[in-house]
Design goal:
about 350 residues; alpha/beta; five-stranded mixed sheet
Length: about 350
């Protein structure tokens, strides 16, 4: 059984890892805490940006000579390869760390093996402490490595009876200002924000992050199959953030930031879109599109997490949050596990994942 001191140190490492959300792609978020030989914390760090020092290096630099004979707590197995930075397993060994406790094994075949390298150097290695917490904070990157596509978080805002707009199409604002601000936090954590042509026509969305200091702007993606929704002068085409317009292979357009994708039965191929984004280094997607695009993603089995903002409002009519997702009978309904419920302003934010995922 883990000692309380180990749990405290690893929980701090998980909190540190979360600071890197949205800034490290295509690398993972990682946190590290170093204690000296007597168990006192002497260093900590997190992976701050792709290409920069890893969490272990930051923590070891802060610890200095006090790391010798100490313990390193890391949320992800220390890497074992040389990329833009050197292998962390080697850095830990050279610093004189005698024990490494890590939460989640590295599924990346290019980087795994750090634990074996450390053991071969005489370092005591333990795995699995607070693995669920470490996995949750790093779920986007882990999903992208394991499935070869970006992690997809579908976000929607609706009334308590599931309407995203009134019968006349008005929707501003169903949810509170606090909920709308919270969505910018989700955008800041994502590599790409995706909407469809309906949203582009109706709302002329900007999709950039606002109100979060130091946020790395995500790639703004509009799925515009026929290349008719995004016109010159659209807000999404300004220079606040990069933009990509996904169109059909045979669509005519004069826009430059375009990716051409094969058609599906309805719209564009969702797997092809995700493949194209993954090839561009996108590891996490915030799906903000309307019900039609959300239905296409659900039908394609490409939604990993759902974040719904429910407002204490009733409309009784108007579009629902989710359109046809290929589910025709209750026995085929997608059942979810609710992982969090939180009050945000006057609203309720519900976070859920597919059962068994």
């Amino acid at each position: 059984m883990a000692q309380q001191a180990d749990i405290t140190a690893m929980r701090r490492a998980v909190a540190l890892a979360a600071r890197g959300l949205g800034a490290t792609s295509p690398n993972p978020v990682v946190g590290c805490v170093v204690t000296d030989a007597s168990g006192h914390q002497v260093g900590e760090g997190f992976h701050q940006r792709a290409g920069g020092p890893h969490a272990e290096v930051h923590a070891l630099r802060e610890a200095g000579v006090l790391a010798r004979g100490g313990t390193a707590y890391v949320t992800l197995e220390p890497c074992n390869h040389t990329g833009r930075t050197g292998p962390c397993a080697q850095a830990l060994t050279e610093a004189g760390i005698s024990r490494v406790v890590y939460a989640v094994g590295d599924p990346n075949p290019q980087a795994t093996g750090g634990a074996d390298t450390l053991r071969a150097a005489g370092v005591t290695v333990e795995q699995g402490l607070l693995a669920d917490e470490a996995e949750a904070v790093n779920i986007a990157w882990l999903t992208s490595v394991r499935q070869g596509r970006p992690f997809v978080r579908w976000k929607y805002a609706a009334t308590l009876d599931g309407r995203i707009a009134a019968a006349d199409g008005t929707s501003r604002w169903i949810t509170s200002a606090e909920s709308r601000a919270d969505v910018h936090r989700l955008r800041a954590e994502a590599d790409a924000v995706v909407v469809g042509s309906g949203t582009a026509r109706t709302d002329d969305p900007h999709l950039a992050v606002r109100g979060i200091e130091g946020a790395v702007q995500p790639l703004r993606v509009v799925v515009d199959t026929e290349a008719t929704a995004v016109k010159p002068g659209a807000r999404v085409l300004d220079d606040a953030a990069p933009t990509l317009i996904a169109v059909a292979e045979d669509a005519g357009t004069t826009l430059t930031d375009v990716v051409r994708l094969p058609r599906a039965e309805r719209g564009l191929s969702v797997p092809a879109l995700l493949d194209a984004l993954h090839a561009r280094g996108v590891r996490s997607v915030l799906l903000e599109g309307g019900p039609t695009l959300a239905g296409a993603f659900v039908a394609a089995g490409a939604v990993d997490q759902v974040v719904g903002y429910l407002a204490p409002v009733l409309l009784g009519a108007g579009p629902a949050a989710l359109a046809d997702a290929g589910i025709s009978t209750i026995t085929h309904a997608l059942r979810l596990d609710i992982t969090e419920t939180t009050r945000v302003g006057t609203d309720l934010r519900i976070t859920a994942t597919l059962k068994g995922a």
